[in-house]
Amino acid sequence: MKENIQDTSHDLLVKYLLEEATPEEIVRVERWLKSSEENNSYFIQLKTIWQQSRMLAPAVMIDEEDAWQRFGKKIKQQNKTAATPIYAQKLNWLKAAAILLFLAGGSYLAYWLSVKQGDQLIKSTEGRVMSYTLPDGSVVTLNKNASVAYNGQFNNTSRNITLKGEAFFNVVADNKKPFIIQMDDISVKVVGTSFNIKNAFNLTEVIVETGVVSVSKRQYSVQLRQNEKAIIFKDKNAPEKISVSSRLYKYYRTNQFVCVETPLPELVAVLNEAYNSRIKIGSGHAATLKLTTTLDNKSLEQVLEVIKETLGINIERNNGEIILN
Amino acid sequence: MNLNVEPLQEILIPGEDIIFEQVFKAHFKSLFAYAFTILKDDVMAEEMVQNVFYKLWEKRDHTAIHASLKAYLYRSVHNESMNYLKHSRVIKNHQIHTMQQQKYEADINPAVQLVNKELEHHIRKALNELPEQCRTIFQMSRFEDLKYREIAEKMGLSVKTVENQMGKALHLLRGKLAGFIISLLVFFFTHKIV
After folding, report:
1. Contact B37, A61 (CB under 8 A)
2. Mutating which of B27, B174, B177 best tests the A interface, going by the most A Cβ atoms within 10 A?
3. Any chain A CB within 8 A of the CB of B105?
């Protein structure tokens, strides 16, 4: 048997078997199959396994509606064993509602009903970027390890949301209900616009793509327009406003690293975030280099190769660290 | 790294029971089929899927939002089923035996019956030894008839990764089954079945 078959040609053989191969690949595989009896018999073995494995499938399928009914029963049973019966919980809610109504009148009930909607927490996980539509139709794209929280259906006067980590917001316009993002003592207020917020431990950055955004910390605030950026340091009071030409911050939405005269250290910082890598810049002249190129969604290896070729620098590896010189 | 943005319908929203129901119904059959190919027992297969959803239900008010819900559900069903298998190996073997006998009673040729039974047992065992992701992708390709591109989309992976994992799956299966398959092919040949 041909045990030393190359991994790539093995994948190709399976592609051929599953009818996923391109016409050129089909020609290649069929030539390979004809070249020896050994090759052909290897393929027949794969094909036999593939075909015969089909018999493991269930003969009878269970209906999902029936399964859902059984799931309902399962939940009820499990809840019965819990300390408070369901009807008692309901009674408590009613009591609470009655007392509130008695003490504070109808407006309090309205408030209670909105609280009842509960806080919503939307989290992205470690390796993934995630898009989510809020109740008002605004879309938030969370970078890795980010989260937003908001209360139910928002309230009547404003759309309040809290943010941890980095996210891009595309906010639906509503003049009567400003959209307010809270991060500890920093707040970002908009009416309808799109912008990116990066909220890290001691530094927060807001970059505006369209519209007008107001960024405040304590009594200080700045107004940002397109291609303007606010930087807010944890240990400083007033947000600082600068103009920004870099489009690098978009990478997690667009799958591209767009560099226009981008200093290498800036690109390296973004790459380390995106790939969870430990790239450092050595003591040489690399820190002063600038790069203009667009890197598509490639592996880190490919990205580093492009940087190396474009800038003519050396790449060393040492215990998981990648050093550019 | 994967920078793909997740399609919205694949996201669970805490407290939204109607969405939970939709997710349950949308994924139940394929998850049941997955558990069945591992366990070969329809009652237990449903139980595994129900358990996975029950655990998700309990967590639904906290966070329980996963970037690729499909990948999460498959992984959970795989783990739940493998754990069950580990803890009930003795009972399981007995069940496999009795159920297989029932299934092949209808076959005419007793020699073919016997070989099929053996083959099914070997394939299931080999499949259950594959790494989780590899196994899940194989499952989607073989039992849900999905193309590489569709699997990649549902799992939030690149087509290249799916291609590698399928290559790996069949390569590993052949490694485990080679001896048996060769004698099987000889058997089929002598009985003029193929």
Report:
1. no
2. B174
3. no
Spans of chain A, pLDDT less than 50: 1-4, 7, 81-91, 98-117
Looking at residue A63, what DSSP letter applies? P
* Nearest in space to A277 (alpha carbons), one of A247, A245, A315: A315
Rounded to a whole number of angstroms, the distance between the first and last alpha carbons of chain A is 48
- Give the pairing of strands A228-233 and A240-243: antiparallel
Point out the residues of chain B with pLDDT beneath 70. 1-18, 60-67, 89-113, 187-194
Instruction: Enter the pTM of the model.
Output: 0.48
Which one of A130, A133, A279, A297 makes the best mutation probe of the B interface by having the most chain B beta carbons within 10 Å? Answer: A130
Distance from CA of B43 to the nearest CA of A (A): 10
- Residue A149 CA: distances (Å) to CA of A81, A121, A123, A180, A295: 32, 4, 9, 12, 33
Yes or no, beta carbons of A11 and B166 under 8 Å apart: yes
Question: Which residue, B165, B160, B156, is CA-closest to B70?
Answer: B156
Please tell me chain B's helix, strand, coil percentages from 3-state DSSP, rounded to the nearest 5.
80, 0, 20
What single-letter amino acid sits at B161? T
Residue B116 near chain A (CB below 8 Å): yes
Tell me if ipTM is over 0.90: no
Query: How many Cα atoms occupy the beta-carbon half-sphere of A206 within 13 Å?
Result: 34
Q: Mark out the alpha helices in chain A (DSSP H runs).
A: 7-17, 23-35, 37-53, 64-80, 86-104, 106-116, 251-254, 264-275, 300-311
Residue type, A141: T
